[in-house]
Request: fold
Amino acid sequence: MTEEDVVAENPILHHALRLGDDALILGQRLSEWCGHAPMLELDLALANIGLDLIGQATHFLNLASEIEGKGRDADALAFHRDVLDFRNCLLVEQPNGDFAQTIARQFLFSNWQELLMREIAAAPEPRLSAIGAKAVKEIAYHARFASEWVVRLGDGTDESRARLIAGLDWMWRFVDELFDPKDGAPSLRADWDARIARTLAEASLELPKPRRGIVGGRSGHHSEHLGHLLSEMQFLQRAYPGATW
Amino acid sequence: MYTTELKDKNQKSAALSVADEDPEKLAAFEARVAADDFIEPKDWMPEAYRKTLIRQISQHAHSEIVGMLPEGNWITRAPNLRRKAILLAKVQDEGGHGLYLYAAAETLGISREEMIEALHSGRAKYSTIFNYPTLTWADIGAIGWLVDGAAIMNQVPLQRTSYGPYARAMVRICKEESFHQRQGYEIMCVLAAGTPEQKRMAQDALNRWWWPSLMMFGPPDDKSPNTAQSVRWRIKRETNDELRQKFVDVTVPQAEAIGLRVPDPALKWDEARGAYDFGDINWEEFYAVVRGEGATAKERIQARTSAWEDGAWVREAAATHASKRAMRLAAE
Reply:
């Protein structure tokens, strides 16, 4: 049986890997901001969100490791898989760009992740729901933070508005993947659309025009960006095989 | 992180004269300080006290902020999930320290923008230690162990410094620094017990960070002209040399315990003093780094300046939005 078959046969493993990889990759992206944000308060907020996500990734990947039962722990999953085995959505691996692009990504993702995590927290699988229940409080803050910044930037200066529109435009292609009938959460679409529309209206922005969605992250077919992110993140584990840290 | 009061050797000593102060007020102030009373923002204070504190607290704040860069350099490459989370939390703590310290300095009548402008233009100094590069993962261990270890030595007495807002900020900061020091030493312990490559990293990091860490305590007492007044005013509670000696005495056995060698051939235990004798510090290098000639000084200031300039549109957007909102609320 190939790795894909094993994952496909175990929906909980499937879930744990996707959720863990989403959190890990976005946490890694946000940590790139550390020391470089537009003001100290934002440095703290972005690091804080990144830290929450790394914590969630650790829990979900530990669970994935336990279910998989192959002796690969969460670190082995994070630092020794290559692009084809990562199951995160394409949205989270997109480059930070400027602050508006980072906020656009966070806004679209955290609103989705919050709805999803509420569902998981209430679901019958106890190991997933325990992690979900803790994560949902953190994510609610992430979604609020990002939504507030969408309003500030959208209803700020001409420049901030133009930058936010460009950021949303960059990220919008990757939204459909979150609701993909096969690998996503299609039932959350209506609630998510309503949340996004409400915040964009408050920011006096129009909804980006519909476009062909790009998918593939959930089956390991990522953008070019992920390989570079992994080569940086996995450097020490790859350069010094077998060492403990 | 912490910085002792830093001045370029050629820079004129800041006016610390109290000649123009009202002698009665000055005497009352000095009596309060001598009795270990806290001075609060609205209390009368000599201008030299205010200036010295602004310089010291803002240097300390800048050191926290610039200090995020050498460590931030390794967050994206931290070797496992636990280390990544710890390092992110630690660097976030440093940012938080910067925030309280800027706020403490603001109570003395200077704005955060003015302080940041002084940092970017090179008028304000920050700890020389952050002008050295972090080359390997072991440098993250060495910074926690040595740099935060030196910071604790400096800061513990500052919890009783005479200026209330500074002392209170320091209480919280000290708790966090003590966690930082332990995580750094733990990184070194793991590396020193690891593969030959890891041991090499650990020893090399100690070799590079040892002397700069000793320099963090500032010039020797006989070359530190403001120390006497700062000690009298309880801005400082112990001298640079006293603190440096304490640091050496605590740290050398920690290095020995994990099989690392302190890079000082003159280092030896002095039974009579009950302290380590150690070699001469290269003060020429120290003053060069204070002047901005450190290996990564340009990169550090460039990174801070770019973050500030690239983020100007964000700050402007937030301010514009806030005023639009206030106007809309007023119109309702």
In short: The mean pLDDT of chain A is 96. The CA atoms of residues 16 and 205 of chain A lie 35 Å apart.
